[in-house]
Each structure stands twice: as structure tokens, then as C-alpha cells.
Amino acid sequence: MIEKTDVIIIGAGPVGLFAIFELGLLNISCHVIDNLDKPGGQCAELYPEKPIYDIPSRVSITGQELTDDLLAQAKPFSPVYHFNQQVEKIVKLETNEWLVETSLNKKLKAKCIVIAAGAGSFVPRKIPIENLDYLEDKNIMYAVRNKSILENKEILIVGGGDSALDWTNELSKIANVTLMHRRKEFRAAPDSVSKMLELEKDKKINFLLGQIDSIEDLKNGKIKVTVKNNDEKNNFEVDYLLPFFGLKMELGPIANWDLNLDENLIKVDAEKFETSVPSIFAIGDINTYPGKLKLILSGFHEAALMAQQCFKYCFPDKKNVFRYTTSSKDLHKKLNI
Amino acid sequence: MKIKVTDRDGNKHELEGDSNSTLMEILRDAGLDIEAACGGCCACATCHVYISDKWLEKINVRDDDEESMLDQAFDVKNTSRLSCQISLSEELDGIELELAPQ
Ligand SMILES: Cc1cc2nc3c(=O)[nH]c(=O)nc-3n(C[C@H](O)[C@H](O)[C@H](O)COP(=O)(O)OP(=O)(O)OC[C@H]3O[C@@H](n4cnc5c(N)ncnc54)[C@H](O)[C@@H]3O)c2cc1C
Ligand code: FES
Question: Are A114 and A308 in contact (CB under 8 A)?
């Protein structure tokens, strides 16, 4: 089934979230797609606990608080969120609408696309050893999509954060798991840490101090991982290596959409924030124009101006009357006030 | 103030530092291949360098934040530092370091 909406927003970072609100004020409904499993973009993924000091009127607000408030502000407009999927393809239909396809094969149709993709999708950071690509999904997995293939296998999990610990705890039930980290301290939810330590005490998992040194394909379905701890080296033959070294941002499929780019940024005008392709907009960290500053507040401004132009595409026959949220009865109704 | 950097191909660079900058900013602005994705907030570990032994004791030690962030870096050694967490000062004139893999 193809779902239909007015505008598809790619990216649920702070700027994408505020765009829901600005579009909503103009009666424009949205679906929002993000590769992450949660909203907030960089604010929620990279610095949820760190305070931001330059959001107008907010003397200090953490990345997560800002995300929560933006979600609350957008809520009256009932946006539909689609997480854990990357937008891969966009196609212009004969009806002049856009068809958007995600990595989970979801298809959405809309009149406009708003790209609020930051520095691109968050993707797992890979091991910086050359010529490993072909082992990906075969022996090296940066994300677990199908747990059942890991059943009864020898697994080496590397890392000290939430993903590494959660998967260690989870996979200990079905596989032979070793967790390796460079120190015996973990930056993860205290619950997961104590659970892991308990599993180690009960010999349900092994814990190993060390780091990856090299990886060799044994050509029998297994790999040999050489690990080092200071000057000491050891070899492990395993079926699967699961490295969890956090996420990084990569432009990804956006590069193939025939938009005018400048390095990895999308060129827009500074009046409507429209790209070189009409009815596709780019706002927030992903765009560039003379004088661009990569700040959340600039992204908010861009969202407001973008919405004005979107209105023309969504309601070509209607007149857009400028109103303040303070005084407009009509806007109050929309905001459930 | 001089900063002596060996890049990942073994090439040596001599950069001019100043005491208003962090080490990361000097490396990045000189165009060396250092991502510094978070712009120096100790939130990405893509500004990882190895400081030469003899300079290590002249700089402040890693704090908890930096230690945790280094968990996301590869091949962490005793000499590993996140260069955005090192403020330059005249005392560090001549500091020698190497870019870590990324
Ligand atoms: C540590 C740190 C501190 C900062 N401090 C400040 C500060 O004090 N003040 C300030 O103004 N700014 C600050 N910033 C910058 C600020 O976080 C960014 O400007 C802001 O997050 C940009 O918002 P955005 O919505 O444009 O993009 P992002 O927050 O980058 O969100 C983009 C989202 O789009 C998703 N995405 C991308 N491509 C696709 C695709 N093809 N399919 C699906 N999803 C996709 C990504 O997964 C991501 O979630 C800081 C940044 C960092 C890292
Ligand atoms: S620049 Fe991101 S941790 Fe140093």
C-alpha cells in the first residue's frame, strides 16, 4: 500500500521536527522518516545530556530536552513517524507527486519533499582495516537484523557501550558469546552492565580485555580475529564478529538524487530553501547558501520560510493569510488551545 | 608555536599553533585528514591522535568523558588522545604527534 501525505520530511533531527510544526500551522500534513530508531538527530544521538546555550529564550537546554519539547510542539499536527529506515529512492510521478521508497520497502507519496538530513544518515562506524567489505554480513555484522542465524555460533562482540552490552546479554541466550573491550569499564545503562557481569560470573559469557589487531578469512565460513592487549596477542576463530564502535554520519543515497550539491551539501536559495529541483526543499545542516551557519536556530528559520513555499505547492488555489499564533483563533484550534 | 604531525601515510607536517586553539582545530584547519565530526565537543572520537611519549606528561590527563569517548576509537594506546580536548599553550611548542587510523 502506498500511503499519501502532503509533505515527506527526510530526517527527524531538530530541524525536521520543527518543520512539522511550521507546516502544520499552514494545514500541511507530514510523514517523517529517519534511519535512527528515535527522533532528535544529532541532539539525541550524539549529545542527549549536553546543554545547548544558544536556543533563543532557552538559557540552557540539553539535546534530549530540546528533542522532547520539539516533539510535544509538533504533536497537535499528528505527524506520522517512520523510524529505522533510510530513504533510498525518490521518483517523480506523472501526477507531479513524489514517490519515496525506504530501505524497509515502505512507499509514500507526497506533493513536496523536505530534506532535513543533517550530515546524512547515522550509520555504524566500521573497522578501519582495508579489504574487509566482502566479509560484511557474512562474518562481520555492524547491526543484527536476523538473530536466528547466530544461534549456537561462536560470536565475538566488541565495544563498551549500550549496543555491545545489550547484544551480549541478548545473544548469550542462544550463542557462545565473548565480549571484548579495551577496559573493564562500560558506558552503558547500569542495568545492562550488572547483567553482563553476572553472566560472566556464571560463565554464560566470556569477557576479554583487548582490541582488534587484524582479521583473516579462514575460507571455511569462519574468521580468525587477532586481538591484542598491550603487547600480548591472541587469536580467536569465530563465526561472527559484531563490532559496536558507535555511529557516524554519511550522506548516503541523497547523493544520487540529481540535486545540485556543493561537496556533501545541498545548494538552496536563501528565500525559500528550495533545491535545484522544484518542490524539493533542503533545510538544516544539510543545506548550503551564502552565509550559512550550521546552527539549530538557523534551521528553525529555514523551516518557517520553506513552509511558505510548500503551501503554494500543496494548495495552489488557496491564499495564505499571515497570522500570529498569539492571536489567531484558527491557529489556536489547530493547536488544541 | 610549532606542531609536528605525522599523517597516516608517514608524511611529516610542521604546523603553526596558537594558544587560543585546541590541537584538533589546528590539525583540521591545516587540511589534515581528521574528521572531527562533532566540532570539538568530545562526542565523536574522530579526532584521535597519538602524542609522542615525551610530550604526554606535559598535557592534562584524559578526563572521564574523553576516556569514554575513546571507547569508540580504534587501536587505542597509552599515548591516545582526542585532540579536541587538548588546549595549546606555549609549553607545548614543538609537540610531536601522529594521526590515528579512522
Ligand atoms: C556535540 C555537538 C554539539 C552541538 N552544539 C550545538 C549548539 O550548541 N548550538 C547549535 O545551534 N547547534 C549545535 N550543534 C549542531 C546541531 O546539533 C545541528 O546543527 C543540528 O542537529 C542539525 O539538525 P538537523 O535536523 O539539520 O540534522 P541532524 O540533527 O543531523 O538530523 C538529521 C537526521 O536525518 C537522518 N537522515 C539523513 N539521511 C537520511 C535518509 N536518507 N533517510 C532517513 N534518515 C536520514 C539522520 O539519521 C538524522 O537523524 C552541535 C552538534 C554536536 C554534534
Ligand atoms: S572532535 Fe569530536 S571528539 Fe574531538
Answer: no
